[in-house]
Design brief:
- The complex is a heterodimer of chains A (about 325) and B (about 350).
- By secondary structure, chain A is of the alpha/beta class.
- Helices cover about 45% and strands about 20% of the residues of chain A.
- In chain A, the strands form 2 sheets. In chain A, strands 6, 7, 8, 9, 10, 11 and 13 form a 7-stranded mixed beta sheet that branches. Chain A has a 6-stranded parallel beta sheet with strand order 2-1-3-4-5-12, with helices on both faces.
- With about 350 residues, chain B is mostly helical.
- Chain B has a single domain, classed as Orthogonal Bundle (ABC transporter involved in vitamin B12 uptake, BtuC).
- In chain B, about 75% of the residues lie in helices and about 0% in strands.
- Chain B has a two-stranded antiparallel ribbon with strand order 1-4. In chain B, strands 2-3 form a two-stranded antiparallel sheet.
- In chain B, helix 6 runs antiparallel to helix 7 and helix 14 packs across helix 15.
- The chains are: A alpha/beta (about 325), B mainly alpha (about 350).
- At the A-B interface, strand 8, helix 8, helix 9 and helix 10 of A face helix 5, helix 8, strand 1, helix 13 and helix 15 of B.
């Protein structure tokens, strides 16, 4: 049964390649299945992305399969991807956990005739369908522009601290495309737009809030004029916020967080975190599924879709229009 | 402090398996060697002090802010390491502690959120505390049963429980962090009594109790005996099965306390709270002088070991070492510390081992 439908898809694909159009009807009887493979399953960001993807899947009548690893690590993600390829979904949406290590595993999907769209993170340069390089085969890259997000964080932080003083970036670990880009954007904006702000060395906490808090205290002990910190992900921000509290510097050292799960939003209300830059993960999931569906039914899709950001602070955190950008469980 | 952990002759003499060796060969060198981890910690602190003064004219250790920060930083790794000390002395290892801590953190957050409206803040915190530690004891009990009744090697049994506790914690948390709304809980996590954070006081009292349990009670003696030689311990009439069961429950409860204090401090329960701490906890125990082969180790040593790790990580940021060098430095210090231990065992302890 399974094999027959695979065969049928293969034949249909060949027909699609040969005829080039109007083969959508050949698929119409089969329900499409779209696999969504997140960077890791235990993160509010990807859980919210799944919700958006599910909403689109329900609206379009396609099946969504959500499977991933518990850690943001290619070693964990590739076996999940292989298992998915073996299932032969109609399309794969994936947040690749490494820009180079995922190229070959994803090429296998492409060669098996499964269209690939990357969400949140990318492979190669993130510029697809250009004919250049060996990682241009995915159809589209759908994500928020993390460099821009980092710049927005820099502006929000500079604004909160009055444009002067020392800051540093509290980051997870080097080598993750998204958090590296946030740091890059943050530093670029600080250098270009805020000459009176000094950016100290980045501190890496390996996703340990305890370590992030202690690092903040150590940096403050050394730099009494520390005025701000940018937490590039949840635990970096949670830890930095607690470090500020432990140091008795609430209100004096400003904390800007990237991402907006409920615990960060609670911290905005209590003043532990000053500003959160919220991505729109549900939007990424939604457009991922819609783009895959559009491609499967013979439409063309853009090679990149940028989703936006929302800046959340004390003034708008209670606003119901803002609440929809808080990552939910 | 040292008198209680290095057995003195007479009454305490036959309390521990190594004791009569220790009595005979108690030299000054050996007494100093028992304090090795503390000396190492002292050297480390002095090193940072000199570094800080030379590089920017500031003080490292005389700054009370640094002391507070390091103490708070050491709380979670120390609690895990305290449980781990008992297990390692018995000749086992508990790899599930990190996620048991996370499980307790999530359970505490949920329980306190659920109980606060009905019971008021302090009562909800107290009950939530108890519930979280009891829930943490469940995987501990299973670990204990696996190791004692089914004879699963501790490394494998607790590795399995590492996965189970992790999954359950993430399921309960819905894959994300669970915020707590209870200001009394947040006060415990972040307020201070005369400059000393509450969580540091709670941890100090608990660790002292554990020190007493290990060094002064029959449970502690049995633990050393089992770690030194299981067969001999069995022939001496020690109920190994029930001891091992209680042992793994105890270590899980230590991790449970760590999880509750984590939630109090960060106002949120996170399933991955203890994940990065597991290896730190093992390192702290080994730096503290315990042998991974069992039979030796002390809580006092582990305290020094946990502080060695906290001081290095804090100090390197304080003296402004380039981040990538920090990884290398922490690794090198752990290796040096254990090398000193090995050398000391060879020179002063050689005769003891016969």
């Amino acid at each position: 049964m399974k094999r027959r439908s695979i065969l049928k898809s293969a034949v249909a694909l060949a027909a699609l390649a040969a005829v080039g159009m109007t083969s959508g009807t050949a698929f119409a009887q089969d329900k499409y299945s779209i696999a969504l493979i997140p960077g890791l399953t235990t993160d509010a960001f990807y859980i919210t992305m799944r919700k958006g993807a599910q909403a689109a899947a329900d609206a379009l009548g396609v099946e969504l399969i959500f499977q991933g690893g518990p850690e943001f690590n290619p070693v964990v993600q590739v076996p999940v991807l292989d298992a998915m390829i073996a299932r032969k979904p109609s399309a794969i949406l994936i947040a690749p956990t490494d820009t180079t290590q995922l190229i070959e595993p994803l090429r296998k999907a492409n060669e098996a005739g499964i269209p690939v769209i990357t969400v949140d993170t990318f492979i190669g340069t993130g510029k697809y369908q250009t004919g250049a390089g060996d990682a241009d085969f995915p159809l589209s890259y759908i994500a928020s522009d993390n460099v821009l997000g980092g710049k927005m964080a820099a502006r929000a932080l500079a604004n909160a601290m009055g444009g002067e003083g020392k800051v540093y970036v509290s980051n997870v670990k080097p080598g993750i495309s998204t958090t590296d880009q946030r740091e890059e954007g943050f530093k670029a904006a600080m250098a270009e737009e805020f000459p009176k702000i000094t950016v100290l060395d980045t501190q890496f906490n390996e996703n340990d809030a305890n370590k992030a808090a202690s690092q903040l205290q150590a940096v403050f002990a050394r730099n009494a004029d520390l005025k701000g910190v940018f937490g590039a992900n949840l635990f970096s921000a949670l830890g930095a916020g607690n470090g500020v509290q432990q140091a008795g510097q609430m209100g004096n050292i400003k904390v800007v967080a990237f991402d907006a799960p409920t615990s960060i939003v609670d911290n905005i209300k209590t003043g532990l975190v000053d500003v959160a830059i919220a991505q729109h993960p549900a939007e990424i999931g939604y457009y991922g599924v819609v783009s895959a569906y559009a491609h499967l039914t013979g439409q063309s899709i853009p090679t990149s879709i940028g989703t936006g950001f929302t800046v959340i602070d004390k003034t708008n955190v209670e606003d119901p229009n803002i609440a929809k950008y808080i990552y939910s469980e | 402090m040292t008198a209680s952990e290095t057995p003195t002759p007479a009454a305490e003499g036959d309390a521990r398996p190594q004791a009569d060796h220790a009595d005979r060969a108690k030299t000054l060198v050996q007494r100093i060697a028992d304090l090795r981890a503390w000396l190492f910690l002292l050297a480390l602190i002095l090193g940072f002090e000199v570094w800080a003064r030379l590089s920017f004219g500031g003080t490292f250790i005389l700054n009370p802010f640094n002391l507070q920060s390091i103490a708070v930083f050491a709380v979670a790794p120390l609690l895990l390491a305290t449980g781990q000390t008992f297990v390692i002395i018995s000749g086992g290892i508990d790899l599930s502690l990190g996620f048991i801590m996370g499980l307790a953190a999530v359970v505490a957050a949920h329980a306190i959120n659920a109980l606060t409206p009905g019971l008021g803040m302090p009562a909800a915190v107290l009950l939530g505390f108890v519930i979280a530690v009891l829930v943490a004891a469940i995987p501990g009990t299973i670990n204990g049963l696996l190791v004692s009744r089914l004879r699963v090697p501790p490394f494998i049994g607790t590795l399995g429980m590492f996965g189970v506790a992790r999954g359950v914690a993430f399921l309960l948390a819905g894959g994300t962090t669970v915020p707590v709304s209870n200001s009394f809980f947040a006060t415990i996590g972040n307020a201070r009594l005369m400059g000393v954070p509450y969580i540091v006081i709670i941890t100090a009292v608990f660790v002292l109790l554990m020190h007493y349990l290990l060094s002064q009670t029959r449970f502690g003696q049995h633990n050393y005996a089992i770690g030194a030689n299981v067969q001999a311990a069995r022939r001496a009439g020690i109920d190994i099965k029930s001891h091992l069961l209680r042992l793994y429950v105890l270590s899980a409860c230590c991790a449970g306390l760590g999880g509750v204090l984590y939630s109090a401090r960060f106002n949120a329960g996170a399933a991955q709270a203890g994940e990065p701490l597991l290896l730190d906890s093992v390192a702290a125990v080994v730096i503290g002088g315990a042998s991974l082969f069992g039979g030796s180790g002390t809580i006092i040593g582990t305290v020094a070991g946990a502080f060695v790790i906290a001081v290095i990580q804090y100090g390197l940021v304080f003296v402004n070492v380039e981040p990538f060098w920090q990884f290398i430095s922490v690794g090198v210090v752990i290796i040096i510390s254990v090398l000193i231990d090995q050398a000391q065992r060879r020179f002063s302890g050689g005769r003891q081992d016969e």
